[in-house]
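Reading is simple: each integer encodes one residue's backbone shape. The lines below illustrate:
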Amino acid sequence: MLGRFTVRPSDDGSPGFGVWDGAVNGWRATGIDDEGKARELAADLDVQYDAHGPRAADAVRHVDPAQPVQRATWTTGELDVWIRDKGVWLGRFRDQDGQITWVPGADLRPL
């Protein structure tokens, strides 16, 4: 659902991966040596910004400490933040392998 920040191999001459900002059509960060770290940075930026600029304060809810949850696909992981995007609440879901995805709230259940 989200798409402003994407992880790509760096093509600006620096090694590793970078985070591309589709709203400004430029790199937000480059030279990140681990793809997982780049994906985490992209997810953190998605919490801060929507397609038009800084995300409104009432559109972000942090979960501290992170809570164990289950997706509708029977996958378990942790939820650490909610964002409202285009009128839908999405949870940042980190699975057991550390992969981060944005999941609609209706597809998450507490463990």
In short: The mean pLDDT is 93.
